[in-house]
Amino acid sequence: MKKYLMLIISVIVIALLILTQIEWVRQLIIRDKERVELELKQTLQSIVSFCLSKEVSDRQNQLSFDLIPVDPSQIPPNAIIRGSFDTGEYSPDKNLANFMVGVFSEDLLEENKIPLEPIDSLFRQEFSRYSEITSYSMTFLKEDSVTRTLQSGEVVNVNVKSRGENVTVDIPLGESGTYRYRAHVTFKPAVYLQRLRSTAILSALSVILISLLVLYQLVQIKRKSDELDSHKKAVRGIIHDLKSPLAYVYTMLGIFEKKELEADKKVMFQSSKLRVKYLSEQIEILLSTIKNKKNIFQIKLENYPFTRRCKEIIKELEVIYPDKEIIYSFEPETEVTLQADPVYFDGCVRNLLDNAIKYSGNIPMIHISTKTERNNVIIAFYDSGKGIEKNKQKKVFREFYRSETGSSLKNHGVGLSFVKQVVNAHKGKLNLESSPGMGSKFTIVLPQ
């Protein structure tokens, strides 16, 4: 289940990204529709006001009126009031001309003398998005009764859901609130989305591209994970298979030790048994580490006789490399004791010394220095090897990395990776300084 957790999370993230983009486009469409509705309403408001003013002005000879200041308390109960204009009130659109147009246009509306054709003609000319309209209707209403109507195209009922976008505009007429102008406009299907087509397409392509990249990365991660699992199983099998022959060797050495009469040879058999036992313990630790789901070394800090163990390991390596004349030195020469896991740190020291001898020709020269700074101990391993190029210094700590220059030697690319893991498990730092032909310096900084 854990293997697919990342995939599930990524799919959810991609789905959320797609939904976010869809919602973003939807909000753009809503805002665009609101702008169109506002523009439609403003255009019709201006056109209707203009046409009403024109109709009133064309019939001014037929209209008569007097402007008489009146005290409301003195108006007879049976008086007919066409309208009133209070100069004590103020609003930006309140003026005497508009008031007169409202009063007299109401008379014309009552007589049904105001046509819709001029409004329609100006609407066709003035509305900038007229080409996006499929149909519309214009109506004069007296309360809820239609007094005059005009249609263009196949007008869809307001209450019927159509494939297009319906917008209804109501404009009050006159001063009494009895009359209204209503326009019902149907736009082409998805007209708002068409206007945002380039943005929507770019957004969709971005989401698809990001999704493909994420999926590609997931596939690569899954492939790498499978490869690591395969390596892990192979290493576990190889290490486990070493236990039986080592047990056999340990038993045979014990038999030889009992039968041996010469004291020197008896000591050699005892020493060999200790080495085989040590190797068996290392195998057990490696198996327990590999089985650990978190792949974390279980570090147990103890007193570690660093100087003595370095000398003992070098003596063992002299047997492994009989053709090499190993020269080594310590600074200081006295015993240095560290706080480290004796098993894991032993493997760390062994790997560094083995590499220093392996890659340093027939006369390896090794210098090991230790010093204390604040609460840290700094250990430096100097060798006289061929050195490591700058662009490869980070790569040598990768698992299974093998340098091309060392391909003729037995090298599986595990040693330095193991060293780095051990140092990290001790909460320390591992640094490398090297130049081709000038040897290498590996520095370990351990908190104490």
Structure description:
It is a single chain. The protein has 448 residues and is an alpha+beta fold. Helix content is 50%, strand content 18%. The strands form 3 sheets. It has a 5-stranded mixed beta sheet with strand order 6-8-9-11-10. β8 and β9 (376-382) form a beta hairpin. α5 packs antiparallel against α6 and α7 crosses α8. The chain is rod-shaped.
SSE pattern, N- to C-terminal:
HHHEEEEHHHEHEEHEEHEE
Number of helices: 9
**Which word captures the global form?**
rod-shaped
* Strands, count: 11
Tell me the fraction of residues in β-strands, as a range: 15-25%
- Give the integer mean of the pLDDT values: 78
Largest sheet: 5 strands, mixed
* Spatial strand sequence of the major β-sheet: 6-8-9-11-10
Spans where pLDDT lies below 50 across 5 or more residues: 158-163, 405-413
- N- and C-termini, Cα separation: 40 Å
Radius of gyration: 47 Å
Level of helix content? 40-55%
What structural class results from the helix and strand content? alpha+beta
